[in-house]
Amino acid sequence: MSVSVIIPIYNSQTFLNDLFGALNKVRFDDNDEVLLIDNGSTDTSADICLANVTNYPNLYKYYRYVDKAGSYAARNFAVNKAKGRILVFTDSDTKPVSNWIQGIKSSISEGCVIAGKISLEIVEHNIWEYYDFMAHLNSEKEFLNSNVATANMAVLKEDFVKVGFFEDRFSGGDYEWSTRAVSKGLKINYCPDIMVSHPTRKTFEQIMNKECRIAYGVGNHYDNLQRHIGELVIIFFLKIFKFDTNYRYSKYFYLKNFSIKEIFYFNVKYLYVRIGQLKSAIKGYRHIDPRIINLK
């Protein structure tokens, strides 16, 4: 069965050389394709992509999609372009293992969604990396909650069509799609050998952007469901005072030998994260252009 790998790209120049370095070692078959969907990059992402298209014209296909900002809109656009029977989703900052595609082909079946392993790389061993490791992209934990992340996901195209396109939201569309997939009778299978590596976020600013992006997507979702904005505000306002979460993270950091000073600093900055989430959820509900508020 042929494969269409779908990768949304937005200002990803920092990661693309590693991505292509890994992809160029992956074993693809003749009818496979990798769709690179540039969602309006303003850096050198397009140049890096087009250089690889030139070197591997039968594998890579580059599209510039700017009708709507957001990785899920870009993925939906790519699904309509995809020729493969298997749809494979990953991100521009991942590094797949060499047997990635062959593992998917040997594991995929009708009515099955593959949730591959996402191996988070801790490099600097700072407190924000460990927070990211604990809070985001735990593929095994998400599988246990019947969720699959588009950082490493595969499904037959006919099954994807049965479930429907990703919800038109800026972030979190994979989890909403997972809920619909399960309700349609699809089974999510966790496959640890089908693996991609993913860098952890290393700074407060990177974590803030990630959390605000998620909250913005939740705001999109609430408006799409025509739920009242007051309900959204209450939920995110109460999150600010959810101190049991702070305690859980603080205990985890203490066990990782972070100092009391570092943990205190994290909790102060985490308050700003929670306030940022509230503001971003409201902006998402109102569908303010995410590029204007520098979400990526």
Automatic annotation (TrEMBL):
**Which EC number(s) are documented for this chain?**
2.4.-.-
Q: Which InterPro entries match?
A: Glyco_trans_2-like, Nucleotide-diphossugar_trans
Is Transferase set as a keyword in this record?
Answer: yes
UniProt keyword Glycosyltransferase, yes or no: yes
Q: Into which EC class is this enzyme placed?
A: transferase
Domain (Glycosyltransferase 2-like): residue spans on this chain: 4-132
Keywords on this record? Glycosyltransferase, Transferase
Gene Ontology MF terms: hexosyltransferase activity
Q: Which SUPFAM superfamilies match?
A: Nucleotide-diphospho-sugar transferases
**What is the protein's given name?**
Glycosyltransferase
Say which species the protein is native to: Bacteroides cellulosilyticus
